[in-house]
Design brief:
single chain, alpha/beta, Carbamate kinase, eight-stranded mixed sheet, four-stranded mixed sheet, 17 strands, globular, binds adenosine-5'-diphosphate, binds phosphoric acid mono(formamide)ester, Asp/Glu/Uridylate_kinase, carbamate kinase activity, kinase, Carb_kinase
């Protein structure tokens, strides 16, 4: 059934970890609130494509199967490409269901489409020599070092919040199912796609093949927004604004910055690698690829106000 697109802007929304949950049960509850904010935008005529993170989820899927395989000798390993696709599937299912239920409750005649996507990455990407993407659960330094000794995996401290396993996070080159996502959005569907940045794949003479890595969802969302020519890229996280001197006595919230200002702050080391830095870099990539566009970083709760220009940090060319 063709749906009527909204008369508002087209927006790619990248949902952060706080919009999801650390267990399927917890997430099923959290996404009801997430869906409310998304349907608020749809009700205001905004045409949305929703992507989401998967760091905790993909790590836990891969790790759980690895643990079972090591202990029962029967359970198969679940490599990162497959674990990434599984995370897109279940997170997308829960988000779509919550959005559909909220649309029905409000009598809005729209529907969702959950598209599991692949993202082409380059085998020459230097990210394969320097794992930076945190996945799985947080743990203490002692637990991380013991796990590293047991498994040979790499662990790093994550933005002052504890230690996590880290894997390669290559730059997204192309979203394989882009045309399907665009056609569904143009047909008026609320599309959930590119979750976890998409399943990373190499494009070879014989076709696509999965790669054991996790792409940054903000960077893939930026690629999607630029390729769409979306009016906005909206990155929703756990803070209302990006700060300089973050978590210091002289912390300063930023309401806006140009690409040049953002690059200056990056040079100053103002944004933590593995957390806020990739978000700001994603916004720069989007507005440089599509200078008419506007990028916004804010919290889920402030999304509507941010779209109205009342809060959040706006990044422009
Ligand atoms: N300069 C900064 N300004 C604001 N937040 C920052 C900054 N540096 C690090 N952060 C932290 O980065 C977090 C967002 O990164 P992360 O939690 O990895 O993203 P996600 O919401 O996609 O899961 C914020 O919640 C905040 O704790
Ligand atoms: N893939 C990805 O960027 O997930 P997180 O947002 O959870 O790090």
């Amino acid at each position: 059934m063709p749906y009527q697109k909204g008369d508002g802007p087209s927006v790619v929304i990248a949902l952060g970890g706080n919009a999801l949950g650390n267990t399927p049960q917890e997430q099923l509850e959290l996404v009801k609130n997430t869906a409310k904010h998304i349907v608020d935008m749809v009700g205001d005529g905004v045409n949305v494509v929703v992507s989401h993170g998967n760091g905790p989820q993909v790590g836990m899927i891969n790790n759980a199967f690895a643990y079972a395989a090591a202990n029962d000798g029967k359970t198969p390993e679940m490599p990162f490409p497959e674990a990434g696709a599984m995370s897109q599937g279940y997170i997308g299912y829960q988000l779509s269901q919550a959005i559909l239920n909220d649309l029905k409750a409000r009598g809005i005649m729209r529907s969702t489409a959950n598209v599991i996507t692949q993202t082409v990455v380059s085998p020459d990407d230097p990210a394969f020599q320097n794992p930076t993407k945190p996945v799985g659960a947080f743990m203490t330094e002692e637990e991380a070092k013991a796990k590293a000794a047991e498994t040979g995996w790499t662990f790093k401290e994550d933005a002052g919040r504890g230690w996590r396993q880290v894997v390669a996070s290559p730059k997204p080159q192309r979203i394989v199912e882009f045309d399907a996502v665009k056609d569904l959005m143009d047909a008026g569907y609320i599309v959930v796609s590119t979750g976890g940045g998409g399943v990373p794949v190499f494009e070879t003479e014989d076709g696509y093949e999965g790669v054991p890595a996790v792409i940054d969802k903000d960077r893939s969302s930026a690629k999607l927004a630029a390729d769409f020519g979306a009016d906005m890229l909206v990155i929703l996280t756990a803070v209302e604004k990006v700060c300089i001197n973050f978590n210091k006595p002289d912390q300063q919230e930023l309401s806006s910055m140009t690409v040049a200002e953002a690059r200056k702050y990056i040079e100053e080391g103002q944004f933590a690698p593995g957390s806020m830095l990739p978000k700001v870099e994603a916004c720069i990539e989007y507005v440089e690829a599509y200078p008419q566009g506007k990028a916004l970083i804010t919290s889920l709760e402030c999304a509507a106000a941010g779209l109205e220009g009342k809060t959040g940090t706006v990044i422009t060319a």
